[in-house]
From TrEMBL:
Residue ranges of domain Porphobilinogen deaminase N-terminal in the record: 8-105
Pfam families linked: Porphobil_deam
UniProt keyword annotation of Transferase present: yes
Keyword entries, A-Z: Porphyrin biosynthesis, Transferase
Organism: Fimbriiglobus ruber
Name of this protein: hydroxymethylbilane synthase
Superkingdom classification of source: Bacteria
InterPro entries: HemC, Porphobilin_deaminase_N
GO molecular function annotation: hydroxymethylbilane synthase activity
Protein's pathway: Porphyrin-containing compound metabolism; protoporphyrin-IX biosynthesis; coproporphyrinogen-III from 5-aminolevulinate: step 2/4
Lineage: Bacteria, Pseudomonadati, Planctomycetota, Planctomycetia, Gemmatales
EC numbers, comma separated: 2.5.1.61
GO cellular component: cytoplasm
GO biological process: heme biosynthetic process
């Protein structure tokens, strides 16, 4: 891998995904320097079909399969996705490489909310992003 080629960070294009990806990218820049960190936007089945209920789509992998495939196809070096949405069954060839600390613990995942940690349902909270590294990633296996 060239030191001049960008370090490709795969992400969905939703506002939350982009915030998480940029948050992780800011922390990766000093680690991968002199390489630039480049966001690779990946459209998932769930992004394309917002009319069908998640359960009717099968429920699993609706927002993650395309991201996992981008890693396996070497279109991204790492990917960032909400930890709450990652499958619990590992995908061959991929590792959960890092779980960064929550940037703002106790912050609701949607803008304009007046909820607090004690008044909002737990299902609405997603303060963590997860980095998933492909097998060829220079971050795979690091702790």
């Amino acid at each position: 891998m060239s030191t001049t080629s960008p370090f490709r960070l795969g992400t969905r294009g939703s506002p939350l995904a982009l915030w998480q990806a940029n948050h992780v990218a800011d922390r990766l820049r000093p680690v991968v320097a002199p390489r630039a960190v480049e966001l690779v936007l990946i459209e998932t089945h769930g992004d394309r079909d917002q009319a069908t209920a998640l359960a009717a789509m099968g429920g699993f992998g609706v927002f993650t399969k395309a991201i996992q495939q981008a890693l396996l196809d070497d279109r991204a070096d790492v990917a960032v996705h909400s930890l709450k949405d990652l499958p619990t069954i590992p995908t061959d060839g991929l590792v959960l490489a890092a779980v960064p600390p929550a940037a703002r613990p106790g912050t609701p995942s949607y803008p304009g909310s007046t909820c607090t940690l004690t008044t909002c349902p737990a299902a609405r909270w997603s303060g963590r992003a997860a980095c998933v590294a492909g097998r060829n990633s220079p971050t795979a296996g690091r702790t």
